[in-house]
Write a structure and sequence with these properties.
- By secondary structure, the chain is mainly alpha-helical.
- Helices cover 54% and strands 0% of the residues.
- This is FAD-binding oxidoreductase.
Length: 70
């Protein structure tokens, strides 16, 4: 799944360069994943470790309400 996401991002970057930013509206952004139970939190930590090992920047946050209020 991660490799497919990276390939997709790279292809969109190429299309944006070829066609120009006024034609292709694409911006690489991050995401927020929230665990609602202790078990889910353990699984989320394991997922974050795998992502970090693959070179994805991860960050554990406690102040979710400040970052994503809606």
């Amino acid at each position: 799944e991660l490799e497919l996401a990276r390939l997709s991002r790279d292809l969109w970057d190429e299309v944006g360069e070829e066609l120009g930013p006024e034609t292709v509206e694409f911006e690489t952004k991050g995401g927020l994943v929230v665990a609602s139970t202790p078990d889910a939190l353990g699984a989320l930590h394991a997922f974050a470790e795998r992502q970090a090992a693959a070179g994805v920047r991860t960050e554990a946050v406690e102040r979710v309400g400040e970052l994503e209020p809606h």
